[in-house]
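Q: what sequence does this backbone want?
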């Protein structure tokens, strides 16, 4: 089969797994997810694709270069790779809205890595939940926290969790709704809701939307890629994905 760019295969002898990035001196160049590159001869049945032996060949020159598909997170979609069986590592988010937004942007990446995102019902009992989860080198945990700012209740809860295989990141917004750029939902900025008032209900009243459910449907429908959300959320999620997909020797 043609060794098309971004095709992910495994070298049958060494177990090295990577995407096709080019050819050198008659050998195919593979690059793994950490950026390491190795050259392999195009020998018969020298590679594995989805566990099956394949023989790679250099594609014939094409007048039109293949188009790379970009995922919603901005990553290059890899060809010939199906979703992995779920790994033991997890990413936790605070609620179902957070989970839906993460799926909308990073779902393709997470399925390839075999990482499941699970919503929590808040983080008040985070320390006990982490203990029950039992993190370890091959069972890593990442947690995305809303409103993680110095001096907040959330920051005090996060400080109570210390484990080398747990990474907790967050964004400064009161709710994950605010992590969506306001102009995407027709606002110049998110309304400021007085302390003590339910935030989502206050937003709905300020912008003239009947219920939080209606507002959330509008917000989620406005998100198509990482370009629709704020940088702190992007940075936090990328750190969590890196944390839970690190392979320990």
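A:
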């Amino acid at each position: 089969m043609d060794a098309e760019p971004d095709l992910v295969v495994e070298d049958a002898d060494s177990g090295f797994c990577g995407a096709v990035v080019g050819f050198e001196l008659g050998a195919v160049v593979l690059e793994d997810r950490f950026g390491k590159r190795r050259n392999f001869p195009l020998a018969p049945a020298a590679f594995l694709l989805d566990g099956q032996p394949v023989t790679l060949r250099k594609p014939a020159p094409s007048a039109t270069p293949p188009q790379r598909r970009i995922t919603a997170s901005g990553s290059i979609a890899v060809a010939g790779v199906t979703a992995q069986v779920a790994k033991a590592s997890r990413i936790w988010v605070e609620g179902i809205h957070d989970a839906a937004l993460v799926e909308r942007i990073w779902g393709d990446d997470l399925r390839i890595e075999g990482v499941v995102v699970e919503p929590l019902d808040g983080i008040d009992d985070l320390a006990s939940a982490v203990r029950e989860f039992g993190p370890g080198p091959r069972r890593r945990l990442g947690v995305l926290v809303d409103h993680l700012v110095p001096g907040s209740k959330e920051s005090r809860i996060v400080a109570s969790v210390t484990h080398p295989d747990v990474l907790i990141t967050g964004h400064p917004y009161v709710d994950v709704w605010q992590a969506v750029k306001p102009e995407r939902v027709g606002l110049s900025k998110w309304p400021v809701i007085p302390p003590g008032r339910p935030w989502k209900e206050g937003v709905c009243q300020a912008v003239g939307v009947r219920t939080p459910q209606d507002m959330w449907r509008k917000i989620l429908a406005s998100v198509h890629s990482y370009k629709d959300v704020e940088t702190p959320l992007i940075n936090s999620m990328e750190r969590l994905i890196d944390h839970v997909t690190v392979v320990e020797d």
